């Protein structure tokens, strides 16, 4: 599912101007479209990524993808779910280093939940700051549009 599709679905499912809920996000991250093993090309098309990116994520240890008897990558629903999460975190500005730390902690089990929580809270703080900066940029842009006699749409 492409990023644009996920964003469109999230916005369509929210109520008024309310934020998207955790349940809505979970529904967006499901891998229901993966009913049988998929190739690199199929996953790349499904998630709107390059095959190079998928191979890179595997090479650096962000995702583990089983191989067929012939040695080809075979993506299952869990792999697609993990990659979807990774791409959403990258889209929000999370560094590869932080993603690697998160994945490594997750692999160690539940005892690392507090560290993963801290990592996610720090990332959330960075996102909130980015949103504030974007809101300021939007206000400046709106001001300039108004200065030129234009009308800003909501």
Automatic annotation (TrEMBL):
Matches recorded under PROSITE patterns: HTH_MERR_1 (PS00552), HTH_MERR_2 (PS50937)
Listed InterPro entries: DNA-bd_dom_put_sf, MerR-type_HTH_dom, MerR_fam
Keyword DNA-binding applies: yes
SUPFAM superfamilies noted in UniProt: Putative DNA-binding domain
Family annotation (CDD domains): HTH_YyaN
Keyword set, alphabetical order: DNA-binding
Chain ranges of the HTH merR-type domain: 37-105
Transmembrane segment boundaries: none
Taxonomy, superkingdom: Bacteria
MF annotations from Gene Ontology: DNA binding; DNA-binding transcription factor activity
Gene3D superfamilies reported in the protein's UniProt record: 1.10.1660.10
Keyword hit for DNA-binding: yes
PANTHER family: HTH-TYPE TRANSCRIPTIONAL REGULATOR ADHR, REDOX-CYCLING DRUG-SENSING TRANSCRIPTIONAL ACTIVATOR SOXR
Protein's UniProt name: MerR family transcriptional regulator
Biological source species: Luteipulveratus mongoliensis
Lineage: Bacteria, Bacillati, Actinomycetota, Actinomycetes, Micrococcales
